[in-house]
Amino acid sequence: MCPLTKTVEPSQAEKRAQYLASIGGCVDETPARSAPNVPPATEAELRPLRAALYCQPTALDECWHKMHEVWPVAHAPYRYEVSAEGRLLGAWPLSDPPDESVTCCTRRAARQVTLPPPGHALTFDDGAGPSPELCGDKVPPLGTLTKQQIKEVITTTDPLVRACYEVGLAKQPLLEGRVTLKFAIAPNGAVWGVAVESNTTSPDIACCISQVARTWHFPEPAGGGFVIVSYPFVLQLGRD
Question: What pLDDT sits at residue 178?
């Protein structure tokens, strides 16, 4: 756990309530059972299944989009069971999701999804999401924001970024360097995933600044798509 800024973070119960409200509530009625003992998809079978899941709208989109609004850096991969006819029969988390309500939503939505019929029952694991290599021209469109629009939002939290730097200076008084964050701005202006792209300071400082980034909210991008941003913070002694 990294040092946090003074930003008040909602409790897990509050986040769960927010997520459930955004998806209209959810009760997991799937009978409890372990992941099915059916063969995994071959590489040849995997590509069309993932393309159908990621490169066109499905009922699962709401679960994923709402999850990232509440837990911006969450990653919740699942193993899916597919019937010979292409119906999704179940979903099992491959790692701990941010909350059990995400699994509830995923299982409920999965029952509404039909994929290309593989001809026999199989399972497959989540991939990395849509990409030009997988989806071609069907990849979700990118929106646009000007550099000035992005900078104006980020600089409003300069005092919090400076406070993160001072956390590191308390341990290493002569520390200087650069932290570069990579993140996505969603069509509604919210920040989705936040990753530390590079860091020459300390893990505590980089983690703290990434927490600040989760509080940003930008104007809605022109074009209605996502904006991918790589933003550097240069941290030097005596520099505000």
Answer: 96
